[in-house]
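// run 5 | inverse folding | seed 20
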């Protein structure tokens, strides 16, 4: 696990100023409507939903998702190759675990990343499925939100690391998954049967790939988001 320590980041700094490629930035308070959330990266990968039955509600500059309505959004493909590193930062509030709270998924249930319980992340690729367990309440419901970074290290091991509000969180045992991933759904595991949809509010989301972020870069992004959201 990376030791991140503390930071005196200048918050005029922008999350695009890192070595890794920013594939998606659903930026709080920027381009969010019930029908879409504009991508603030350079990729034009807007989250969109034309079916009003499945549109989330605007909340605190982000989107509040109802599990009873299967709220979710479609994305252009975010392709992450085998053994390629990626980092996903999400600022969110969990309402419940009636369903597993999926962050990103695809057109079937074969590839997804979800908060499975208030202490587990579940990550599935074509290389297999891993449930990674942390201390009870790591992903607790309620409150004003937390910043989570889920990082997969590049290379053959594909170790999964978790950071919460800038601090690294130690799992009960290290898990690894280096398989390829293509995400094209926000807040649902499966865009067809619409299972395991997110229940809560996503305030902001960023997805990086290609290169590993350094420890100082992860810290800067975490501190940027914490300062922005008053966490």
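// decoded
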């Amino acid at each position: 696990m990376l030791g991140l320590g503390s930071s005196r980041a200048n918050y005029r700094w922008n999350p695009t100023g890192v070595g890794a490629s920013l594939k998606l930035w659903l930026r709080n308070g920027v381009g969010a409507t019930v029908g879409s959330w504009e991508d603030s990266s350079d990729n034009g990968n807007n989250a969109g939903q034309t079916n009003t039955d499945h549109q989330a509600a605007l909340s605190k500059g982000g989107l509040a998702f109802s599990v009873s309505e299967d709220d979710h959004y479609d994305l252009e493909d975010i392709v992450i190759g085998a053994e390629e590193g990626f980092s996903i930062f999400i600022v969110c509030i969990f309402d419940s675990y009636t369903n597993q709270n999926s962050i990103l998924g695809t057109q079937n249930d074969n590839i997804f990343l979800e908060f499975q319980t208030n202490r587990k992340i579940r990550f599935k690729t074509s290389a297999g499925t891993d449930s990674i367990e942390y201390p009870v309440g790591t992903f607790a419901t309620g409150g004003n939100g937390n910043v989570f970074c889920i990082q997969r290290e590049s290379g053959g091991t594909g170790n999964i690391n978790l950071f919460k509000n800038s601090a690294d969180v130690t799992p009960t045992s290290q898990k690894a998954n280096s398989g390829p991933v293509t995400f094209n759904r926000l807040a649902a595991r499966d865009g067809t049967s619409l299972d395991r949809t997110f229940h809560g509010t996503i305030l902001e989301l960023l997805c990086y790939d290609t290169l590993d972020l350094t420890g100082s870069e992860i810290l800067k992004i975490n501190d940027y988001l914490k300062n922005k959201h008053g966490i």
